C-alpha cells in the first residue's frame, strides 16, 4: 500500500498500515512513512 508523504513530497510504501473507519464513515488506511516517520493517511473505497 503506497501513500503520499507530505514531508518527503513523494509516494512511499506505508509502514504499519492499518484500516480505519473515520467518524464520517469513510474508510482509510493509516500508517507511517518508512523514511521520515510521518503519519500517512490514504482514503480507500468501501469494500476494497
Ligand atoms: Zn516521509
Number of domains: 1
What are the segments in which pLDDT stays under 50 over at least 5 consecutive residues?
none
List the helices and strands in order: EEEEE
Strand content: over 45%
Bound molecules: zinc ion
The rounded distance between the terminal residues' Cα atoms is 12 Å
Strand order of the largest sheet: 3-4-5
User: Portion of residues in helices?
Assistant: under 10%
What composes the largest sheet?
3 strands, antiparallel
Number of helices: 0
Structural class determined from secondary elements = mainly beta
Question: What's the count of strands?
Answer: 5
**Overall 3D form:** elongated
Quick take:
It contains no helices and five strands. By secondary structure, the protein is mostly beta strands.
Structure commentary:
- The chain is an all-beta fold and 48 residues long.
- The chain has one domain (2-44).
- 0% of the residues lie in helices and 56% in strands.
- The chain has no helices and 5 strands.
- The strands form 2 sheets. It has a 3-stranded antiparallel sheet, with no helix packed on it. Strands 1-2 form a two-stranded antiparallel sheet.
- Strand 3 (15-21) and strand 4 form a beta hairpin.
- Zinc ion (ZN) is lined by residues 5, 7-8, 12, 33, 35-36, 38.
Amino acid at each position: 500500500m503506497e501513500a503520499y508523504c507530505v514531508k518527503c513530497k513523494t509516494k512511499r510504501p506505508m509502514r504499519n498500515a492499518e484500516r480505519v473507519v473515520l467518524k464520517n464513515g469513510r474508510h482509510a488506511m493509516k500508517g507511517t512513512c518508512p523514511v521520515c516517520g510521518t503519519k500517512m493517511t490514504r482514503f480507500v473505497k468501501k469494500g476494497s
